[in-house]
Amino acid sequence: MSIPDYMQCAEDHQTVLVVVQPVGIVPEDQFFRIYKRIASVRQLSIRDSQRLLFIRYRHHYLPENNEWGDFQTHRKVVGLIAVTTCSSSRDWPHTADRFHAQKEVYSSTLYDSRLLVFGLQGEIAEQSRPDMVFYPSFEECSDVERRVEDFVESIFIVLESKRLDRATDKSGDKIPLLCVPFEKKDFVGLDTDSRHYKKRSQGRMRKHVGDLCLQAGMLQDALVHYHMAVELLRAVNDFLWLGGALEGLCSASVIFHYPGGTAGKAAGCKPSVCQPADAGKRHRPGGSQNVVDFCSGYAINDVSKRRSQTFSPFMSKDEICEEIKELTQERQQLSEEEKIQRYSILSELYELIGFHRKSAFFKRVAAMQCVAPTISEPGWRACYKLLLETLPGYSLSLDPKDFSKGTHRGWAAVQMRLLHELVYASRRMGNPALSVRHLSFLLQTMLDFLSDQEKKEVTQSLENYTSKCPGGMEIITLPDGLTLPPVPFTKLPIVRSVKLLNLPVSLQPHKLKGVLEGNLSNASPFIYSPILMQSRGEERCKKIDFQWVQGDVCEVQLMVYNPMPYELRVENMGLLTSGVEFESLPAALFLPAESGLYPVTLVGVPRTAGNITVNGYHTSVFGVSSDCLLEDLVGVKASGCLVEVIPSLPRLQLSTSLPRSTHSSQATSKEELPSSVSVQLFNGELQQLTITLENIGSIDIETLELTSKNNNKGKNNKSCSVCVCCCSFFSFILSKRPLSTESVHQSDSKTLEAVLKFKYSGGAGKVEGYYRELSLGVHVNVEPSLFFTRVSTLPATSTRQCHLLLDIFNPTEHELTVSAKNNQDLVLHASECQRMAIQVDRFDFESLPQAGQQTPHLSSPKQLEEERQLAHGCQISSKLGICWSIISFRHGEASVEGVLNQLVLEHLQLAPLQWDVLLNGKPCDCDVVAECIVGDAVTLEVKLTNLSKNTVGPLALMVVPFQDYQNGVQNYDMDEAVTFIGSNIFCISTVKARDSSVCEGALMFLYTGDFYLNIRFQDDSARRGLPLAWFTLPSVHIRALDISTIKFF
Amino acid sequence: MAVCIAVIAKENYPLYIRSVATQNELKFHYTVHTSLDVVEEKISSVGKALGDQRELYLGLLYPTEDYKVYGYVTNSKVKFVIVVDSSNTSLRDNEIRSMFRKLHNSFTDVMCNPFYNPGDPIQSKAFNGVVSGMMVQTG
User: Fold this and answer.
1) Which one of A316, A357, A408 has the shortest CB-CB distance to B33?
2) Which residue of A lies nearest to B61 if distances are taken between CA atoms?
3) Is A428 helix (H, G, I), strand (E, B) or coil?
4) Given pLDDT bands bounded at 50, 70 and 90, which one contains residue A165?
5) Is the pLDDT of residue A288 over 50?
6) Is the pLDDT of residue A748 over 50?
7) Which N-terminal residues, if any, form the signal peptide (chain B) (predicted)?
């Protein structure tokens, strides 16, 4: 069996083959040093001519190949140089024998031989033998080259003689038939006398001579001989030899046209193309016909190869395809190694003509061959290397970035297969990191093409691998220089949007107004400019208009989904940022199979102030950690990733004595209160709320400011009050002190709201002009406690007092106890209505501060009037002090404000004209009974104090005494019982404003008894136009007693 | 008759591939994939010479031991590849041509579908039917 030599090229046809071999024990390095020196004699110019002899050296050559020497003489070993060591003359015979044995191997073709003996000294070395050269050692052999030249020259002489011998051999009668090895048995018993046989012999001989001429450097002669051989052989259909002849012709042409060699063919060769191309074409039929004879595979293998290599610039690719196909169609039983070699060669050839896919295909076949089950020691490393080389052919690169944008490139099914093979090969190679990388790549780039089952398998094996060798983001560099970029799992899970979240409302920093203004004016001298706005708009779309605070937990929300058909476990998911020092707090999450969009919040704490950019996130999936940058992601909606981090601010925690409610009322929804206190109160009830503020941050609070805002719904005159008492307890700086007490007046509408805002600041953030705001909503739900359905007055016995009658209704479901100042309690059952009478002193409204003057904006008289009424009501309420209590647990106040009408108010008002009646210098009013002694004169004084603004009078008063029998009969006929000293008519002259006037009279009782004095006005003229109530004088009750009776008492 | 029919996009990735023997599908993938070399070669050589007046049918791309591979390129550089069994000698060039024409017509229908996004894998039932017809049909 012969081994094809794929390395041959056209020039080899003109070389003579010399084998250099070690004989006996020769150190390898020494041998190759000598071999190199020998091989340096590549060509030799022959004396007396311009011919050149080319020598090809081999240190190893199969004798089987030598048998093909007749077919192509350059395959023939014509020279043998043996290298040996021999230390003593005792060994010499043995060494010489070995040399001869070696010579024997190639004896049939050998022209000459040499033996280089190293180390032998003595008499054997002294004798000069033509075929042996003696050197004392490997170092002392300066004339090796010259010896080799001599040797080559001798070979040339033999060659030349053979050539001449054959060329001139015109005898014709008996030309030996040259055969290739496998032909030999075919010609047994063939008729050697036939014309056909003779022609064949002639043709073959011509070709042989052509070969010899070529070797001997006679190019022209060689061409002539080849031409003749072609003619002869074509006539006898000797295809193999015809092919050989054409090949020789072709080689000769190539050598002729490219003296520089075919290896470096350039475009400059074009003008001379026609001939070799022609030769190539002519060459072809022979070659392809040879195919018929499959036994000649050996020859054809390298023939085709050489042809393709040589003529690739000249032949159309189609034709080359045909050529290459010949290689593939060969069905010899080759050893595994040969197969690999053959496939590699095929692949190279395809590569040469630009068929990258075919090349990749064969390379892959070669790779598979490396690890075929028939091979005892599979070459996984070689297989892997070959597989890597196929990548470009399948338009596959190992950089996932190439796949991230646009549509998938290449043939997914085939690429997937290849990646699987790469994974397997790298695993068998014992490089788990590599297989993890390939597997991640497969999963990342081919995810859309993997079936559910495959996905499961791939991830399972990935998890298996990563349990031994976790995958990371480092670049893997292979020994041959190839680098494998990291594969981030941007599709596991797929991120759809990235949104940076603001801090919770209570922690949001606010900039002090003044500082902000300064910034804006720095930005532009113009108040408004559309161009500037645009650029600012662009900037804003990158920079988000809220701030994060150093040291506070900041959040980024990702909308992710899991494309896998099973639950995906993502571990160690965190943020990748730049700009400021950022401590990412990784999260782990489980995404259900084929989940929809799923929000994930990643958190972290900025440790320094400045501008922070969120670049991406890192994950750890199936044991592979990956850093996914946002810019590499497809279809991600990012609303901007740049945010300002401001220096740290303190944090305040607020707690209240009443339970918080999450309820946020519609009225305040625009402010989004973080927390609010909700209380349900009965109208008029008082509830104390304690707010405790605690500094939970590490920074001292330097300033704290409280503002409040009421949010009353509905304006109704009826009002109640809610009292909010704030006390704060500060843990650090501020000591315990009450902050403020606030009253909120509230109508009978259902709800009442107030917002308390605490502004605080401290630390570095305060220096920058930032503060935080904490707000607490107070939400009060008011239920009615009691209603005054009707109010009326009754005059009391005293002119300075009156009775207020209130019809009280209890709308609650509970029993209600109502109490007023100095009055007994009134118990009301649910939905019961009762009247309550309260005796009150009349009010002197004039002494009240004028509300209208304090609020100048209430200009219209009607409003003024209302305001005054309200003030009056207020005063009345406080005077009345009506309290209610719902058995045992709730109590509160009630106010009559708003239910009082004008009439009632008038009645309650103290009249501007005050009448005082004094009897014996003692004021007598109401139920006080004045006593006097019968027969004594009693002085009666009537005093008018004018508090009104006008002068009053003159007035005439008539005093009429009468007796009341207490049975409805009044006796006015008192002339006998009472006598006036002087007139019974009193005259009061004009009384100016703020003045008083007194008129006096006297009367005497003649009998004992109870008398009443009715003081009447004489006529109505003077008091016209003044209210009647102003002229009510108290009635006087006098008891006249006998002196003895007094004594008796 | 055909053992494998493939439609390949302009960017050389498969839009549609279907073969008779499902268990050996990958082999056909390789066959069709490697045939693209020849298709490209033919387009580049023909394209220069004749401009847009070129023949869509490319003829036999290459024979392997078991199969013959035929190619066809539309004007929009979408490639059709039909693989037939080498043993099937009854199939003439003309019949292959008509198969390609039928395939092209059906492909045009697919492209006319407003819901089809060019570049996506073909999932049309009608197209599938035409292909099945070509694969089953004998002679």
Assistant:
1) A357
2) A318
3) helix
4) confident
5) no
6) no
7) none
Supply A342's token pair: 């053959």
CB atoms within 10 A of CB A161: 11
Convert the pLDDT of each residue in A451-468 to its tens digit.
888 888 888 888 888 888
Ramachandran bin of B111, using left for φ above 0, alpha for ψ from -120 to 50, beta for the remaining angles: alpha
Chain B contacts of A417, Cβ < 8 Å?
Answer: 26, 29
Q: What is the pLDDT of residue A965?
A: 80
Helices (H) then strands (E): counts for chain A:
25, 47
Identify whether the C-beta of residue A733 lies closer than 8 Å to the C-beta of residue A470. no
Taking CA atoms, A152 is separated from A54, A78, A96, A147, A164, in Å, by 9, 10, 22, 9, 18
How far, in Å, CA of A127 to CA of A79, rounded?
A: 23
Measured in angstroms, the CA of B14 and the nearest CA of chain A are apart by: 6
Q: pLDDT tens-digit profile of A352-396? A: 777 888 888 888 888 888 887 777 777 888 888 888 888 888 877
Angle at A623 between CA A621 and CA A626, to 5 degrees: 55
Q: What band does B103 get if pLDDT is binned at 50, 70 and 90?
A: very high
Phi, psi (deg, nearest 5) at residue A284: -60, -50
Overall average pLDDT of the A882-895 stretch: 72
- Torsion sign over Cα A639, A641, A646, A649: positive
Q: Is the pLDDT of residue A524 over 60?
A: no
pLDDT attached to residue A668? 45
For residue range A838-870, list pLDDT tens digits in order.
Answer: 777 777 666 555 444 444 554 567 777 777 777
CA A217 vs CA A49, A71, A211, A223, A685: distances in Å:
10, 19, 10, 11, 128
Residue of B nearest to A358 (CA): B34
pLDDT of residue A990: 75
Q: Which residue has the higher pLDDT, A759 or A739?
A: A759
One-letter amino acid identity for A598?
Answer: Y
Omega prior to A493 cis, within 30 of 0: yes
Among positive and negative, which fits the CA dihedral A532, A533, A538, A544?
Answer: positive
Q: How many CB atoms are located within 10 Å of the residue A33 CB?
A: 15
- B33 and A394 within 8 Å at the Cβ level: the answer is yes
Residue of A nearest to B25 (CA): A413
Q: What is the pLDDT of residue B106?
A: 93
Angle formed at CA B65 by CA B59 and CA B70, multiple of 5 degrees: 15
- Residue A357 is nearest to which of B13, B26, B34, comparing CB atoms? B34
- Those residues with Cβ within 8 angstroms of residue A583's Cβ, 6 or more apart along the chain or in another chain: A604, A605, A606, A607
Residue A823 and residue A837: Cα distance in Å, rounded? 9
Asked if A356's CB is within 8 angstroms of B29's CB, the reply is no
